[in-house]
Specification:
By secondary structure, the chain is of the alpha+beta class. The protein has helices at about 15-25, 35-55, 60-90, 160-175, 195-200, and strands at about 105-110, 120, 130-135, 140-150, 185-190, 205-210. It has a six-stranded antiparallel beta sheet, with helices on one face.
Amino acid sequence: MPSPYSFGPEAAGANRFAIAALLCGLAGFIPVAPVIAVVLGVIALRQLRRRSRAGQSQRGRGMAISGIVLGSVGILLWGLIVAAALLWSDDSEPVAATPSAPPATAGRVTIDELRPGDCFSGISPASLDWASLASCGAEHEMQLITTVDLGDEPFPGDDEAGNLAERRCTAAAEPLLDESKLDRVDLFFIYPNSRLAWDQNPTALCIASSIDGVLLHSVLK
């Protein structure tokens, strides 16, 4: 009695998924092609394996494997390209320059609000409370070079406090000054001249003052 079962017709030629996988792998310069190559290559291998178990013969195993390999290489290369592009984008973003001193904004401030590098006008031995801030590129009379700590000792008296402020200001400020501008400025200082002021803030302000009354640039290096 003949068997009620029989194999279907033998598959001829190459597996179409294997062919497509190879072509997509070769077209790896197209972003999605490598991914499609890997997917089609896996489908082709599964079909070829099933048909081989069923006794059917079909070509395409080598093309499917080649498509998977080329696709994997393409995916790796595209990943490296994307990563490099992201890194370049981060590195190429403009970075704001950090000023060496807080930018001066025009306005009236107390001398306690002055910061090293600030340019200003308006103070004198008779009026030390207020200063008028100015841009260092505009006309101004003075510039705060630095501040110095006068120490933790008790108030030594007005004369000795002034001598100490002079010594420490000279030592701290002169290395910071632009040598080409030294002949245009005098160095003077503001210091606490009473026990109360000393106890509150034993700090001296070291200031460069224009000899002819006008500066147009910073005198710092």
